[in-house]
């Protein structure tokens, strides 16, 4: 007899006292951290969180879960009981905020409504409660403005224009100079705007306000800006957002009140100290929006020392508890400090590396966790150039260094223009008074962002840091006129739209014109021109050096380079390459050798073909001598000729014109006529699927054997010179084991001849490139004739998807990304479900046939952070990528290894 069990009933609402920081999937980041701070005994206004599960039900069905309203009512009753107030009652009103809170921070992308519960009746009660009529009417106009825009879809500019007119009528410049009577008039004006634009009155029922606000927050998960941000940050679209309902505390109650944002360390540099912004007599949105310029957090000590000291103690508590940089929002209500939010803060790339090593030194985290605090994308940012400090410049302003980098571009004053010009190939700087979430697409398109208002915690600064985008905020001396599309700099000079400007996100300086750039010190370190540990070593370089040492100790994957000549090979070796995973020999056939290749293609007889190959042999051999010398002691994988032969011949149109002109002059050139015939003969509709790779070696006698001989003779020469050449010969585009067996038999014979002639025993391994679906599907058979596989994921992606990369990226990839068909281009990050499954299956089948089979990847996926983790998971031995991406691959290989073993934090 089976046991009867109670059916599981979903719980959709959690009090702040019920959750903790590990419930981010359910409560979102904000709700989980509010619960954690409540558990720590910190001063958090009471409230409750509606879960992401409720949001998902709402988004899927268009209706909230049937049980949600009753759960919200029960928690609201408990909150009212605790506070001794009723939501929106006339004489002693409870007001609440309704805030979004997804698992991953999405600053400014979703909606918030403050002061829920205010109405024509309760505003008087709030005024009596606070003893401040101006405060009550200011809070009411804020609610109507925020509710109208967020919940009812009214154009926010209409409220802003009405506010500006009110200030003009009063002849004041800031909101705080408006008196209660002015704000009463503004409330009336705002309600008229709502009635006209939304077709309904502003709701006076406080519960209706709260329910509509909750639905609006749910809906904001799928706004265009939220979806764009998720695509940019690769955040899954099915997570949903939690909603936090929190009792209001007020920073706009006068000079002994205020609101601020604080960081436990500088998010721009990583340095310890007092960092953040504070704004007296203001609500939190004023700071984040950058509408009024803030004062540095350190000034709070003079304004309100008791609250300042308490805040410093709380910040230390939170950093030690989270073991990381914390980003904190707080409000002071008449001298009482309240914590409204904390989260692990976004930081610049440089700050990430500095903070990770600082926390190791403080004993808060270990090396394994330090690797999880940085990313390959951040390291790549640090390798970008910076402005030349010795260059002649014309500085016209200086703001707050919000997100580092050196950005040069044409000034544009709205997001639409930024996107439009960027798509036309122009580099642009987005210039605004302040940004808001609607500017996200322009921020993504721009090289950098410049604002005349706001601080390190404004919308522009937070979003730019998250994207790794150069940003200068709060450059007050610059007068930005977005309507006339111009910016006036001190001295009266005008920067029109389209004029070049340069911004330095590390110093906050703004320059006219283009400032030249110099290499990053991190690149100089990797190239051996700057030494970590030296007395004058750059602090950032020292941090990068330590993190890279951690990664190299932890990683299992080896990292090789894609390099075709000795110069690239030497640079790759300085960057930490452990060999060459792909040497493309076709690049050696260009330049002054093109004529020899043309003769080879035009050869009518065996003698002519053999003569061309004979002349190419010593040139090829010297290529390999130099390459093996540069990479002495490390493996070098040489890919035999891969592209179609027509790529070595002149363009068919250009050659046809030349021949036609020569014939018109009655002076035809016999060789050009033969070339044109050859071009026509070799012309293919789909050359990347035609006569190339192993097919060339089978159809053109002597081509591959010439290359194998050059490799073998070069290896023998290096070995006889006491070198240690480790050549690997890779046969491209194999689709069946029979192709590989034929080429291998010929190659083994040539190698044996060279060994006999030079008296040198060579250990040359022969393998293949897995770049066709059939090769991946028959990998077990192919492994019988191959000592290694190198996955050519560029071509494999093309053949699996049926894409021609050169065509599709320009034609429809943008639409696919915008529609969410792709989260990211499959040529940028490996398609795990399709291409990846073939890689995984081929690796498994190959090793079942040959347990010691060496496995690597040589497509550009080998330098992509996310792809490196996949290659680690499926058991490859190495990744190979362009020299500049080697440090990124090394770091991510270390991170992949530590992810698989777990870490001590989060």
Automatic annotation (TrEMBL):
PEP-utilising enzyme C-terminal domain: residues covered: 542-894
Signal peptide (UniProt feature, chain positions): none
InterPro entries: ATP_grasp_subdomain_1 (IPR013815), PEP-util_enz_mobile_dom (IPR008279), PEP_util_AS (IPR018274), PEP_util_C (IPR000121), Phosphohistidine_dom_sf (IPR036637), PPDK_AMP/ATP-bd (IPR002192), Pyruvate_phosphate_dikinase (IPR010121), Pyrv/PenolPyrv_kinase-like_dom (IPR015813)
Cofactor requirement: Mg(2+)
Residues of the Pyruvate phosphate dikinase AMP/ATP-binding domain: 65-293, 300-350
Keyword terms: ATP-binding, Kinase, Magnesium, Metal-binding, Nucleotide-binding, Pyruvate, Transferase
MF-aspect GO terms: pyruvate, phosphate dikinase activity
Domain PEP-utilising enzyme mobile: start-end pairs: 426-508
Catalytic activity: pyruvate + phosphate + ATP = phosphoenolpyruvate + AMP + diphosphate + H(+)
EC number: 2.7.9.1
Family named by the database record: Belongs to the PEP-utilizing enzyme family.
Entry protein name: Pyruvate, phosphate dikinase
Phylogenetic classification of the source organism: Bacteria, Bacillati, Actinomycetota, Actinomycetes, Kitasatosporales
This protein's encoding gene: ppdK
């Amino acid at each position: 007899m089976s046991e009867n069990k109670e059916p599981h009933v979903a719980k959709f609402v959690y009090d702040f006292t019920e959750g903790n920081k590990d419930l981010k999937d359910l409560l979102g980041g904000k709700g989980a951290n509010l619960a954690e701070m409540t558990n720590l005994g910190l001063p958090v206004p009471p409230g409750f969180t509606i879960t992401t599960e409720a949001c998902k039900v709402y988004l899927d069905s268009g209706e909230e879960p049937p049980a949600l309203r009753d759960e919200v009512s029960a928690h609201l009753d408990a909150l009212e009981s605790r506070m001794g107030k009723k939501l929106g009652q006339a004489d002693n009103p409870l007001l609440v905020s309704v805030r979004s809170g997804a698992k991953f921070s999405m600053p400014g992308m979703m909606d918030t409504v403050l002061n829920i519960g205010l109405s024509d009746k309760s505003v008087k009660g709030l005024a009596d409660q606070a003893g401040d009529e101006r405060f009550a009417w200011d809070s009411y106009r804020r609610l109507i403005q925020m509710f109208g825009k967020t919940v009812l879809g009214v154009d926010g500019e209409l409220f802003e224009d009405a506010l500006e007119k009110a200030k003009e009528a009063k002849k004041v410049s800031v909101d705080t100079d408006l008196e209660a009577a002015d704000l009463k008039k503004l409330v009336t004006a705002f309600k008229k705007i709502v009635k006209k634009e939304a077709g309904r009155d502003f709701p006076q029922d406080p519960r209706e306000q709260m329910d509509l606000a909750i639905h609006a927050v749910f809906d904001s998960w799928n706004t265009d800006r939220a979806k764009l941000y998720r695509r940019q940050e690769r955040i899954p679209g099915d997570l949903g957002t939690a909603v936090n309902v929190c009792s209001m505390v007020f920073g706009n109650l006068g000079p002994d009140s205020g609101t601020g944002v604080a960081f436990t360390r500088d998010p721009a540099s990583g340095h310890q100290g007092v960092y953040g912004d504070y704004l007296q007599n203001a609500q939190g949105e004023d700071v984040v929006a950058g509408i009024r310029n803030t004062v540095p957090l350190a000034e709070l000590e003079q304004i309100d020392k008791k609250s300042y000291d308490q805040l410093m103690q709380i910040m230390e508590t939170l950093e030690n508890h989270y073991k990381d940089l914390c980003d904190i929002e707080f409000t002071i209500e008449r001298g009482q400090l309240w914590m409204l939010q904390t989260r692990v803060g976004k930081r610049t790339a440089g700050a990430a590396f500095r903070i990770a090593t600082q926390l190791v030194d403080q004993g808060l985290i270990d090396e394994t966790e330090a690797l999880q605090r940085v990313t390959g994308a951040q390291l790549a940012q640090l390798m970008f150039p910076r402005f030349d400090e010795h260059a002649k410049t014309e500085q016209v302003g200086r703001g707050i260094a919000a997100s580092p980098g050196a950005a040069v571009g044409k000034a544009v004053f709205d997001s639409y223009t930024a996107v439009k010009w960027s798509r036309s190939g122009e580099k642009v700087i987005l210039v605004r008074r302040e940004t808001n979430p609607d500017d996200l697409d322009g921020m993504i398109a721009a090289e950098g962002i410049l604002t005349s208002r706001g601080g390190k915690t404004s919308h522009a600064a937070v979003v730019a840091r998250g994207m790794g985008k150069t940003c200068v905020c709060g450059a007050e001396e610059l007068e930005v006129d977005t309507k006339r599309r111009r910016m006036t700099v001190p001295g009266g000079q005008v920067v029109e739209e389209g004029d070049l400007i340069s911004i330095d996100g590390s110093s906050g300086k703004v320059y006219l014109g283009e400032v030249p750039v110099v290499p990053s010190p991190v690149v100089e370190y990797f190239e051996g021109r700057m030494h970590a540990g030296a007395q004058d070593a750059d602090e950032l370089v020292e941090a990068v050096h330590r993190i890279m040492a951690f990664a190299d100790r932890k990683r299992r994957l080896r990292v090789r380079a894609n390099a075709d000549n000795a110069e690239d090979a030497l640079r790759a070796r300085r960057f930490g390459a452990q060999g060459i995973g792909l040497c493309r020999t076709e690049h050696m056939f260009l330049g002054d050798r093109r004529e020899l290749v043309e003769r080879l293609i035009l050869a009518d007889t065996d003698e002519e073909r053999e003569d061309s190959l004979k002349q190419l042999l010593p040139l090829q051999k010297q290529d390999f001598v130099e390459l093996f010398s540069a990479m002495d002691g490390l493996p070098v994988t040489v890919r035999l000729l891969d592209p179609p032969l027509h790529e070595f011949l002149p363009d068919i149109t250009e050659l046809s014109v030349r021949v036609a002109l020569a014939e018109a002059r009655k002076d035809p050139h016999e060789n050009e006529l033969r070339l044109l015939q050859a071009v026509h003969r070799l012309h293919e509709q789909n050359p990347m699927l035609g006569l190339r790779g192993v097919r060339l070696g089978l159809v053109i006698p002597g081509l591959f054997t010439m290359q194998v001989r050059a490799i073998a003779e070069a290896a023998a020469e290096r070995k006889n010179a006491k070198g240690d050449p480790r050549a690997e010969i890779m046969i491209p585009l194999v689709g069946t084991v029979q192709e590989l067996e034929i080429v291998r038999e010929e190659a083994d014979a040539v190698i044996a001849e060279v060994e006999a002639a030079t008296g040198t025993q060579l250990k040359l391994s022969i393998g293949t490139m897995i770049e066709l679906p059939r090769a991946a599907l028959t990998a077990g058979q192919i492994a019988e004739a191959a000592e290694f596989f190198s996955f050519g994921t560029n071509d494999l992606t093309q053949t699996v998807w049926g894409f021609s990369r050169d065509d599709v990226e320009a034609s429809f990839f943008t639409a696919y990304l915008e529609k969410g068909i792709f989260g990211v281009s499959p040529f940028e990050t490996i398609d795990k479900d399709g291409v990846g499954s073939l890689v995984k299956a081929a690796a498994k089948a190959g090793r079942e046939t040959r347990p010691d089979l060496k496995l690597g990847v040589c497509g550009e996926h080998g330098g992509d952070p996310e792809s490196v983790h996949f290659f680690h998971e499926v058991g490859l031995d190495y990744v190979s990528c362009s020299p500049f991406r080697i440090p990124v691959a090394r770091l991510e290989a270390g991170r992949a290894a530590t992810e698989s073993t777990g870490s001590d934090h989060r």
